[in-house]
Specification:
Two copies of one chain form a homodimer. Chain A is an alpha/beta fold and 241 residues long. Chain A folds into two domains: 70 residues, Arc Repressor Mutant, subunit A; 110 residues, Rossmann fold (3-Layer(aba) Sandwich). Chain A contains nine helices and ten strands. In chain A, strands 6-7-5-4-8-9-10 form a seven-stranded mixed beta sheet, with helices on both faces. A three-stranded antiparallel beta sheet of chain A has the order 1-3-2. In chain A, helix 1 crosses helix 2, helix 1 packs antiparallel against helix 4 and helix 2 crosses helix 3. The longest helix of chain A is centred in the N-terminal third of the chain and has 19 residues. The interface between A and B is large, with 85 and 84 residues. Chain A binds a DNA duplex (22 and 22 nucleotides) through helix 1, helix 3 and strand 2.
DNA sequence: AGGTGTGAACATGTTCACAGCG
DNA sequence: CGCTGTGAACATGTTCACACCT
């Protein structure tokens, strides 16, 4: 048990009245939220599990089970009230709180994320940018001036940053991470291809874009190999579908 | 079984002589590969499962099991030969083949990915860029001129693109995806927050950055709630509300 | 009828613990 | 002795199938 973990646990306390939510369900709930929001914009006020599951790309039983973690907000024979679901998913995901994002490392990726509409549009305003490069300090990127990494702790506290996004080179990632934590940040999205060392009260998610490509590469390799011209002997568990 | 899936299956054919690899192991193998490459650069020629697992942020038993899918390339009492492992992981992941990446949608994110060093550095040269905007066509981004999306099928065939990266707005994503598939692309990395509809011989991975933030938000919300000063009554697994 | 909510079966993934090799 | 490789136990996640409500 080296690194911190979180099974599907949850306590019942005041503003977080939901029962245990499995890790895997959390990610899907965020997807349902996006689909629902878009459906509401199109005037849809009710959806069946089948419809919503189709739009989210999951099995309808999985979807119903996921929604059951919110409580029973569906109507049998009818479906789910879209607005009501949105409300509860947002509550479960903690989106009713204020969130404020800091991006560290204003290179190609950091620059893009600082300007990325998807963040503010979905409730995550970017309120601080940091870099080491003196030439960048003070330069506005997406309307926000870049601060020096040394000021991370102070600025994060002042602007109540809740999420730090690390887009620095690998070598700087751990250092920057420690600075963010010193500034009170407890949630970190890490684009640098290193495993960050943090205390158990800090949550880190890593996104390694090259790893994504490598996984795709694997499936392509396997597909070509699997595409043997001979009929499959059914006794071997191999490739099916 | 609506959507395509891939259990940990694999056939033994000529150039793909590895046994079944579980889905979850594939992603980790890509991580081990990065760690190993970096270790080799630092002159490390042998590593124990404990060391490698630590650097990759996983349990050592998990690591050994993952590596066992490659075959038995460790030495008992000693550890693993780093160079040999790299070789085999690369082979398993299909990285010995030529890969060529096309980025579609040269907005903030597309621009960043076109310039992202992590792609070419890890064996994925970007060889084509596409956008709809007439003002962008022909403009070089990262040394490569942008082509019109209409030319996707032709250009992808010509440059033997194997992986397409979609950074367009959601509304254009399915259309662009179909164009890529028409151009022979069978692996797609999708940054648009929509579920792409593809035939089963196309592999899609989605990266939804806002969903990542929402997952972080959830854990922070839960942590605050869970940080109740009272000891947990274990008997009540109770449901909220 | 029509669709939710969920126990139970199944599938996948992770960790333990130790035999056995170098 | 030390560390790999792996069966078996455990944990998590997914899907089925149907009772039950509207």
């Amino acid at each position: 048990m080296t690194v911190h973990e979180h099974g599907g646990c949850s306590t019942r306390v005041d503003d977080f009245p939901y029962r245990a939510v499995p890790e895997a369900a959390v990610g899907r709930l965020a997807v349902y939220l996006r689909v629902l929001t878009s459906m509401i914009e199109h005037g849809v006020s009710t959806m069946s599990s089948e419809e919503l599951a189709g739009a989210a790309g999951v099995n309808s039983a999985t979807l119903r089970k996921d929604l059951s973690y919110l409580g029973s907000y569906g109507t049998r024979g009818v479906g789910y009230d879209t607005a009501r679901l949105v409300e509860h998913i947002e509550r479960l995901l903690g989106l009713t709180r204020h969130h404020s994002v800091a991006v560290v490392g204003i290179g190609n990726l950091g620059h893009a994320l600082a300007n990325y509409r998807g963040f503010p549009d979905r409730g995550f305003p970017v309120t601080a940018l940091f870099d080491l490069d003196e030439d960048l300090i003070g330069v506005p990127v997406g309307g926000l001036p870049v601060d020096h990494v040394d000021s991370i702790p102070a600025v994060c506290k002042e602007r109540e940053v809740t999420i730090g996004v690390i887009c620095t080179p690998s070598t700087a990632a751990q250092w920057v991470c420690d600075l963010l934590v010193a500034g009170g940040v407890r949630c970190i999205l890490n684009f640098a291809p290193v495993v960050l060392q943090v205390s158990e009260d800090v949550e880190v998610r890593r996104v390694d874009l090259a790893v994504e490509l490598q996984i795709l590469s694997f499936y392509q390799a396997r597909r070509c190999a699997g595409a043997a011209p001979v009929a499959q002997p059914v006794d071997s568990i191999a490739v099916g579908r």
